[in-house]
Protein 1
Amino acid sequence: MLKIFKEISAKTRLRKPLFLLDFLLQWELLVREEDPEFKAMRKQHPAVESAINHLEHHGLDRVYAHGADGFDKSVSLSILGANIHRLGQVLRAHTIKAQKRKHLAA
């Protein structure tokens, strides 16, 4: 098993194990990271971070309400604000595109 670890660690970022338990934990980590589901979720992570940042920008960075109901209201209003902002962006882009089309036709 140590021979297999040496071959794999030469190709990956695994460090030299100090103990058998350390070796087994690193081996488990390597096997888990090679799973296609893990790889797909790792690729999705930046999109989730982007969505969180977008919500924080539109009011979810601080929750002033107390309790579960207040939290739900705060989150709902933040999502609503983000969606309204996105609709405004789409509408503005559509208007600009229509103006350019009208300008080119004239």
Note: The chain has a mean pLDDT of 78.
Protein 2
Amino acid sequence: MKNIVMNAGKLNSQRVKEVISLHVTAKKRKGILIVALEGELDHHTAGVVRDFIDKRLEDPTIRNMAMDVTGLTFMDSSGIGMLIGRYKIISKRGGKLGVTHTSSHIDRIFRISGLYKIIRAYNGLEEALNDMGVN
């Protein structure tokens, strides 16, 4: 689990500390990296998530990735770019990248950005794992 604390800088001429909370967890199951994201995936946090996932993708036996975004509350273009980059890594291995539990807000971002053209949406983690060949 990662917590990120960023200094928000000046706001109305006062120094303010803003806590940006992002929780990232990952586990491997039969060649599938299962990542759960909670919080905000934006320009402050996308690099941390990228590094976190890429470290796990150094394992060459990981061919597919399922992302549970139940707790994802916000995503900007940096988050979209991070997802596209992980898709490229997974697709070069002949695998799939999928997401589960998108909220209406995150679903809208996926639709508008065209992410659903390369990343499949699943109703739940078990559906994703079955499609990726776990069961």
Note: The chain is about 35% helix and 40% strand.
Protein 3
Amino acid sequence: MKKNLLLLTLIILIASSLFVTSCKHDVTCDTLGFKLEANATNASDATSGDGKLEIKLNGGTGFSCQVTQPYNNNNSVFESTESNEIYNITGLDTGTYTITARNSFGCIKSNTVVISAP
């Protein structure tokens, strides 16, 4: 009986440690409050190419950031592996842009913004 109780206790302890290990990464991302904020400044007209994006990241370190245009075969218009918290991108045409950011913990956030013209 004692042997079975000891074995059951050992199984419970191992299962508990596996559960904690498997969700540790998710808890880290949630605990950090990793956030991506993107603000667009519209272009002065449809052909000026003077639209702007301001991207703010927080919740972690070691950020990387990529901006793509889905209608343009997802071509990257901006990419950085510098660990900045704020990126200012200028000279953008009107259109839809997808921002994808990652922090050093592997947490990924994505946002879509539209730059339009009057």
Note: The chain has one helix and seven strands.
